[in-house]
Write a structure and sequence with these properties.
By secondary structure, the chain is an alpha/beta fold. Strand 2, helix 2 and strand 3 form a beta-alpha-beta unit. The chain is 31% helix and 19% strand. The protein is built from five helices and six strands. The longest helix has 14 residues. Strands 3-2-4-1-5-6 form a six-stranded mixed beta sheet, with helices on both faces.
Length: 172
């Protein structure tokens, strides 16, 4: 299968408390939608039809997925309950169960996604909302993924000035 790539995305900025009061139902706010406009532009052309997306079923992650329009490219999506506020072990377990895909995308939450990236790279990594990180590994199967087995090859966080300008212009 060659080199494997793991693309990690933390959901965009959300409301502090949902209307229902349930954390699972928290929705994106204006800043989050603007973050995703910039991230979508950055990711343009990176997603391939033979990739697989793993996504938490929470409102904020499904809205992030929808805004990025990744699923509109005929890419399969698996909504996995264990990704909702999952720790690094549950995220790693979900990834290790995947077969026959050289590129995996995971849309999730902190602290699990930061802890996972730190574990896989041996670096101290913290994800901000709507941040993207791409990891490369020379392992041949996802079930071999382990500590220090990945290298960070790409990272994107929207420039705060560009984000503020977009928010002020109201272009969502």
């Amino acid at each position: 299968m060659g080199e494997l790539r793991l693309h990690l995305i933390r959901h965009a900025k959300t409301e502090k408390i949902s209307l229902s009061g349930d954390d699972f139902d928290r929705k994106l706010v204006e800043k989050g939608n603007c973050q995703l406009i910039l991230l979508k532009k950055y990711l343009n052309g990176m997603v391939n039809s033979d990739d697989l997306i793993l996504c938490s079923p929470a409102s904020r992650t499904t809205q992030t997925l929808s805004a990025l329009k990744l699923q509109n490219k005929s890419i399969p999506v698996k909504f996995l309950d264990e990704l909702y506020l999952g720790n690094s072990n549950s995220l790693l377990s979900a990834i290790c169960k995947q077969n026959n895909k050289s590129n995996l995308w995971l849309i999730g939450h902190n602290d699990g996604i930061s802890d996972l990236a730190s574990y896989l790279t041996g670096e101290n990594i913290y994800f901000h909302t709507s941040e993207f990180i791409s990891l490369s590994t020379s392992i041949t199967d996802w079930h071999h993924l382990s500590a220090d087995s990945c290298v960070l090859v790409d990272r994107y966080l929207a420039d705060s000035m560009e984000l503020d300008s977009l928010i002020r212009s109201g272009k969502q």
